[in-house]
């Protein structure tokens, strides 16, 4: 509210129009600033500490929502579980965010399959997401391990790396499943031309290279090009809001010279929900194999199909 008031004050002072911006639309459109070949319509997966949603971006101000999280967001799950596992008590992770700690710890796993997780919502043929169940699964395994190994209050279990890897893998697999069904749906409905198969991945969790690798495997298999803006544009930032203003200005959308009545909205859904139509299609998928992701990351470079160069470009 403070930001909005200040924005209105600036607009009045300098005689400029006021352009309201939707936070998640801004996350989506930032990809077009980063890469001008991202043209409408395209698919977007927004994964962050507050959101998880899959949508078709049709125009600057037109979005179709294919699926969203029924409970937590993935970044939130990482943060809460990193705290629960007391990762901060280990020097390597003491300064990192929950998500960063998970990614780093998982890199050191020698067996990502040591702790098994059930993929959420497998029986639902839609594109909704859920992370609460995975959190519970992790907590149960953690409690059992802490009891068996007599871990004291601020101690960390010996299998911490494998547990982090298992959880991260489960989240990745879930995201890949929902994404793949979404791709099948837009294909069936002819919503994205075959020469414009683009997936934008944005939001704080898009910085996770392991998750991105999984999503890229789905994209490669289904003929999509994945566009992931650089980390400083994926996490919350002011530039993306400004860019969305530029996009709206160019299209003459939402340009207000009388704006006293405009207010921030507590809940503002992204675009129009077509979640029910996705469900009606009851699309079954033959899941893209994510075998590589189940192997220790230390062995990835020997496997061959890991494109190290692409990763370097990204950083
Ligand atoms: C999917 O998500 C939407 C919106 O959150 C909700 O209305 C719907 O009930 C969900 N579908 C299922 C099967 O949970």
TrEMBL record:
Annotated transmembrane regions: 38-57
The keyword RNA-binding belongs to this UniProt entry's keyword annotation: no
BP GO terms, sorted: tRNA processing
GO MF, one annotated term: tRNA N(6)-L-threonylcarbamoyladenine synthase activity
Reaction catalysed by this enzyme: L-threonylcarbamoyladenylate + adenosine(37) in tRNA = N(6)-L-threonylcarbamoyladenosine(37) in tRNA + AMP + H(+)
CDD domains in the cross-refs: ASKHA_NBD_OSGEPL1_QRI7_euk (cd24134)
Any GO CC annotation of this UniProt entry: mitochondrion
EC number: 2.3.1.234
Designated name of the protein: N(6)-L-threonylcarbamoyladenine synthase
Lineage: Eukaryota, Metazoa, Ecdysozoa, Arthropoda, Hexapoda
